[in-house]
């Protein structure tokens, strides 16, 4: 089902969505996302934050609207569209009043499924009776339909960003792998039904890594801890242990020992998503702060009447617009390439992420400052964005790792 067919029944869109560089279809997609947030998210988001997780109902609702499948091929149960459509949904979900934590929780399949879909496409879209075809039917389709939740397991307690050094082992035993190890910082790891997991099937280094899809209810797979965090409160995060977990060989994603390359191919897309979350958060905080400065009166005048405040708001807008322009430029190049962003595009994605995160960090800080004491209260939306924004320079590869990628692309 294509986005155009999903959205054809929608009416007009408001002025903010009437962008010269967007097609009618994308303006309608933006409006659909905004309506979803206003109707199915905002009345409940505070409760989800307190509960520490998002329930399954919004997954089903977003799937019914076609939002959950945006950016995934119709052939695997998606709604069609490309990377730009997916990033548009991410941006609008935040700008309409959601949060980056909500993006992480509701669209966690954006990091759990792409490796399976890419392997299926690389293999020439094999029949459902093949191993990859079965993976698509058992995991991709029901997840995009809102019936299952997936997570991605890479990071280990003592490994951090050193993907090539991971130690969770998968020993071949007939038609199964026997998995032992621990994964941490799993987004949606508590709620997830399955985990696309990076394991070591070969020698040390990047050449010995494979990807296995592991069912969370498999004997020996345990959620050791629900991890409490500074921000992203509505996005559950877990530490998982695997003790002699038997995983069918047919659950391997692609060839044995080819997992590292598969992971690297998808990282740039994840980083562009995080960059989009960063500039969208900055725009949302600017919108909130503009309204506050117009309405808040001190000494008989609105805050916005003061030059120092106006100039601060102007700088917030400038940094955010520049970040969005850079991220969009890289995203367009990645979407046009029609393949995962590798080579020079990987370096540009790293630059875009760092630039957007830097802008967001400064803007959310200024937003809290201009809100004064109210900005420090949990009742203030800018307070939530302030906390949520801090993870954006860590998730998907830290700022420092991004700089290493950029430097490597410069030949240094």
TrEMBL record:
<keyword id="KW-0285">Flavoprotein</keyword>
<dbReference type="InterPro" id="IPR006091">
    <property type="entry name" value="Acyl-CoA_Oxase/DH_mid-dom"/>
</dbReference>
<dbReference type="InterPro" id="IPR036250">
    <property type="entry name" value="AcylCo_DH-like_C"/>
</dbReference>
<feature type="domain" description="Acyl-CoA oxidase/dehydrogenase middle">
    <location>
        <begin position="151"/>
        <end position="245"/>
    </location>
</feature>
<keyword id="KW-0560">Oxidoreductase</keyword>
<dbReference type="InterPro" id="IPR037069">
    <property type="entry name" value="AcylCoA_DH/ox_N_sf"/>
</dbReference>
<dbReference type="InterPro" id="IPR050741">
    <property type="entry name" value="Acyl-CoA_dehydrogenase"/>
</dbReference>
<dbReference type="GO" id="GO:0005737">
    <property type="term" value="C:cytoplasm"/>
</dbReference>
<protein>
    <submittedName>
        <fullName>Acyl-CoA dehydrogenase</fullName>
        <ecNumber>1.3.8.7</ecNumber>
    </submittedName>
</protein>
<comment type="similarity">
    <text>Belongs to the acyl-CoA dehydrogenase family.</text>
</comment>
<dbReference type="Pfam" id="PF02771">
    <property type="entry name" value="Acyl-CoA_dh_N"/>
</dbReference>
<dbReference type="InterPro" id="IPR006089">
    <property type="entry name" value="Acyl-CoA_DH_CS"/>
</dbReference>
<dbReference type="InterPro" id="IPR009075">
    <property type="entry name" value="AcylCo_DH/oxidase_C"/>
</dbReference>
<feature type="domain" description="Acyl-CoA dehydrogenase/oxidase N-terminal">
    <location>
        <begin position="25"/>
        <end position="116"/>
    </location>
</feature>
<dbReference type="Pfam" id="PF00441">
    <property type="entry name" value="Acyl-CoA_dh_1"/>
</dbReference>
<dbReference type="GO" id="GO:0050660">
    <property type="term" value="F:flavin adenine dinucleotide binding"/>
</dbReference>
<feature type="region of interest" description="Disordered">
    <location>
        <begin position="1"/>
        <end position="22"/>
    </location>
</feature>
<dbReference type="InterPro" id="IPR046373">
    <property type="entry name" value="Acyl-CoA_Oxase/DH_mid-dom_sf"/>
</dbReference>
<keyword id="KW-0274">FAD</keyword>
<dbReference type="GO" id="GO:0070991">
    <property type="term" value="F:medium-chain fatty acyl-CoA dehydrogenase activity"/>
</dbReference>
<dbReference type="GO" id="GO:0033539">
    <property type="term" value="P:fatty acid beta-oxidation using acyl-CoA dehydrogenase"/>
</dbReference>
<dbReference type="InterPro" id="IPR009100">
    <property type="entry name" value="AcylCoA_DH/oxidase_NM_dom_sf"/>
</dbReference>
<dbReference type="InterPro" id="IPR013786">
    <property type="entry name" value="AcylCoA_DH/ox_N"/>
</dbReference>
<feature type="domain" description="Acyl-CoA dehydrogenase/oxidase C-terminal">
    <location>
        <begin position="257"/>
        <end position="410"/>
    </location>
</feature>
<dbReference type="Pfam" id="PF02770">
    <property type="entry name" value="Acyl-CoA_dh_M"/>
</dbReference>
């Amino acid at each position: 089902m294509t986005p155009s067919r999903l959205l054809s029944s929608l009416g007009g869109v408001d002025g903010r969505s009437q962008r010269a560089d967007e097609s009618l279809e994308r303006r309608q997609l933006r409006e659909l996302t905004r309506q979803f947030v206003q109707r199915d998210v905002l009345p409940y988001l505070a409760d989800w934050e307190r509960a520490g997780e998002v329930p399954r109902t919004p997954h089903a609702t977003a799937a019914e609207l076609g939002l959950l499948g945006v950016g995934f091929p119709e052939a695997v149960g998606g709604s069609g569209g490309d990377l730009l459509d997916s990033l548009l949904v991410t941006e609008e979900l935040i700008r309409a009043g959601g949060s980056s934590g909500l993006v992480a929780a509701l669209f966690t399949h954006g990091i759990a499924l792409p490796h399976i879909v890419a392997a299926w496409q690389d293999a020439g879209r094999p029949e459902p009776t093949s191993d990859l075809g079965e993976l698509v039917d058992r995991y991709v389709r029901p997840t995009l339909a809102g019936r299952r939740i997936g997570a991605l397991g890479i990071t280990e307690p003592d490994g951090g960003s050193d993907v090539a050094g991971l130690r969770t082992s998968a020993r071949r035993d007939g038609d199964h792998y026997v998995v032992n190890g621990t994964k941490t910082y799993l987004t949606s790891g508590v709620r997830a039904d399955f985990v696309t997991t990076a394991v070591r099937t070969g020698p040390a280094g990047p050449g010995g890594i494979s990807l296995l899809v592991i069912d969370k209810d498999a004997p020996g797979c345990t959620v050791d801890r629900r991890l409490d965090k500074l921000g992203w409160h509505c996005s559950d995060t877990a530490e998982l242990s695997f003790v002699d977990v038997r995983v069918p060989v047919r659950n391997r994603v692609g060839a044995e020992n080819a997992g590292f390359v598969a992971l690297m191919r998808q990282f740039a897309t994840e980083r562009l998503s995080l960059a989009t979350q960063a500039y969208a958060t900055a725009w949302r905080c600017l919108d909130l702060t503009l309204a506050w400065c117009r309405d808040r009166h001190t000494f008989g005048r609105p805050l916005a009447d003061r030059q120092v405040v106006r100039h601060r708001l102007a700088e917030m807008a400038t940094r955010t617009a520049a970040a969005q322009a850079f991220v969009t430029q890289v995203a367009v190049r990645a979407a046009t390439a029609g393949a995962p962003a590798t080579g020079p595009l990987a370096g540009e994605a790293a630059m875009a992420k760092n630039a957007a995160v830097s802008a967001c960090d400064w803007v959310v800080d200024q937003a809290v400052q201009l809100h004064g004491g109210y900005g420090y209260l949990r009742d203030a939306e800018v307070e939530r964005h302030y906390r949520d924004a801090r993870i954006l320079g860590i998730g998907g590869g830290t700022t420092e790792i991004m700089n290493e990628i950029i430097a490597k692309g410069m030949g240094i």
